[in-house]
Amino acid sequence: MEDDKYQKTRQAVIIMQSTVRGWIVRKRYIKAKQSAVIIQSMHRRYRAVRSFQNTRDQVVRIQRRWRVKKLGDEEKRRYLKMKRTTVILQAWSRGLAVRRTVRSWHQNATKIQASWRGFRERQSFLVQILAAVRIQRRFRACQSMRREQVRFKELRRAAVRVQAVYRGMQGRRLAQKHRAARLIQATYRMYQTRRQYQRCKSAAVLLQATFRGYKCRTS
């Protein structure tokens, strides 16, 4: 009966460890996918900035050409109009670039915060896994203690029979005293073993409740 309980507990811990490894792999895949999306967005923004810089360079070259040439009044008005439009376009482009940069910073900060929360949750879950392993070891120790209890009971019954045989023998009183002392010591060890088993059982129940609460929070 105790071996069946041990096997079931062991299988449950193995399944839980496998689930944790799968969960970590999925989180890494999602993080890599998000990083690829960020890189693509940065590349598009870089191309937009380069396009704007090329346009600006063309406008600057046009301005220099217009300064060299002698323009008529009409051409001057067109030049001034183009210059004003260029200034407005530059101001609008700079504002757009700033807004995009701020938005990108905000998104990156949000992702970093989410990654940090995920890291803290993984750390907490790993601590719980380590606690489960420790409880598993204690459970095996408790099983060993129970086997010792069975052997102790057999020894105690044998001691009772021996005491019954030697009760009438006056010459063996000293031996009976020694056996009684050993019996008292064994009884005390059995009491300590029972207390250790109860502590292990309480720790296992607490871990199960903690794991169920963690699953409820993450689901």
TrEMBL record:
It is found in: Cytoplasm. It holds the Pfam family IQ. It comes from Holothuria leucospilota (Black long sea cucumber). Its main location: cytoplasm. This is Abnormal spindle-like microcephaly-associated protein-like. Keywords: Calmodulin-binding, Cytoplasm, Repeat. The lineage of its organism: Eukaryota, Metazoa, Echinodermata, Eleutherozoa, Echinozoa. It comes from the Eukaryota. InterPro entries: ASPM (IPR051185), IQ_motif_EF-hand-BS (IPR000048), P-loop_NTPase (IPR027417). One of its GO terms (biological process) is spindle organization. One of its GO terms (molecular function) is calmodulin binding. One of its GO terms (cellular component) is spindle pole.
